[in-house]
TrEMBL record:
Gene Ontology terms describing biological process: fatty acid metabolic process
Domain of life: Bacteria
Bilayer-spanning residue ranges: none
Name of this chain's protein: Enoyl-CoA hydratase domain-containing protein 3, mitochondrial
PANTHER family with a match to the protein in the record: ENOYL-COA HYDRATASE DOMAIN-CONTAINING PROTEIN 3, MITOCHONDRIAL, PTHR43602
CDD domains, alphabetized: crotonase-like (cd06558)
GO molecular function, one term: hydro-lyase activity
Function: May play a role in fatty acid biosynthesis and insulin sensitivity.
Keyword terms, alphabetized: Fatty acid metabolism, Lipid metabolism, Lyase, Transit peptide
Isomerase recorded as keyword: no
Family annotation (InterPro entries): ClpP/crotonase-like_dom_sf, Enoyl-CoA_hydra/iso, Enoyl-CoA_hydra_C, Mitochondrial_ECH-domain
Family to which the UniProt record says this protein belongs: Belongs to the enoyl-CoA hydratase/isomerase family.
Lyase keyword on record: yes
Length: 262
């Protein structure tokens, strides 16, 4: 009897919020080549989906994501395979950053190595009180160089270097204090609080969210004078949008705005 293999990525949509769930619980949701390909494909589809306002990335089973699939990596050693793997991972992280919609990581259990990178890359991250974060590659002779890119852009340099050099676990409260996560939920309320946050964001103008997210990452890489010049140009363009006119008028008229996404 053939047993149907469950999909490695689950998708659920509710009121404009799309949840993508990593579904390799037996492997602690390790980022296999197949799972990364599925995520990239899903994100590409969502970028063109005008009904999708916010994306949540979650993990099935006991943890969020354990990083790369080391068994898969060791099964195919060699420079070409490694280069392809890390290029694919970089493509995934950049796709999250360039996605039109805000992306929220919903983290429980352990987020380690590339799993920590995934959480750090998302625009926001909500952590369960028992969640833990680590870049432990140094413990097995493999410095977490690609996770380092996202980590150093999410937390202070000293905090990032401690994680990278020691491989130690960071608990949820420490992750919050360093800026690795944006919120720690109440016990047992991770999914509910993440959904509530997503719903609040989804109620905003989708055009404004897209403009703001893109500008945020663009200005973050610029010298401050260039950043202000760029942000001023973005604000001008934004002000000319129909949603901005509607938002200002609604505020002045003391009513709820009706977004058109243009």
């Amino acid at each position: 009897m053939n047993v149907e293999t469950p999909p490695i990525l689950l998708r659920e949509e509710r009121a404009g919020v799309v949840t993508l769930t990593l579904n390799r619980p037996g492997a602690r949701n390790a980022l296999s080549r197949g799972l990364m390909a599925a995520l990239i494909e899903a994100l590409d589809e969502l970028d063109a989906d005008q009904t999708a306002r916010v994306v949540i990335i979650a993990g099935a089973g006991p943890g969020f994501c354990a990083g790369h699939d080391l068994r898969e990596i060791r099964a195919e050693p060699g420079r070409a395979a490694y280069e392809a793997l890390f290029a694919q991972c970089s493509k995934l992280m950049l796709r999250i950053q360039t996605l039109r919609q805000p992306v929220i990581a919903q983290v429980h259990g352990v987020a380690s190595a590339a799993g920590c990178q995934l959480a750090a890359t998302c625009d926001l991250a909500v952590a369960d009180p028992g969640a833990r974060f680590a870049t432990p590659g140094v413990n097995i002779g493999l410095f977490c160089s690609t996770p380092m890119v996202a980590l150093t852009r999410a937390v202070g340099r000293k905090a990032a270097m401690r994680m990278l050099l020691t491989g130690e676990m960071l608990d949820a409260d420490a992750a919050l204090s360093t800026g690795l996560v944006s919120h720690v939920s109440a016990p047992g309320a991770l999914a509910a609080e993440t959904a509530a946050l997503a719903a609040r964001i989804a109620a905003k103008s989708p055009l404004t969210l897209a403009i703001g997210k893109r500008a945020f990452y663009e200005q973050a890489e610029m010298p401050v004078r260039d950043a202000y010049e760029h942000a001023s140009a973005v604000m001008t363009t934004n002000m000319l949008a129909r949603d901005a006119e509607e938002g200002v008028d609604a505020f002045l008229e003391k009513r709820d705005p009706v977004w058109e996404g243009r």
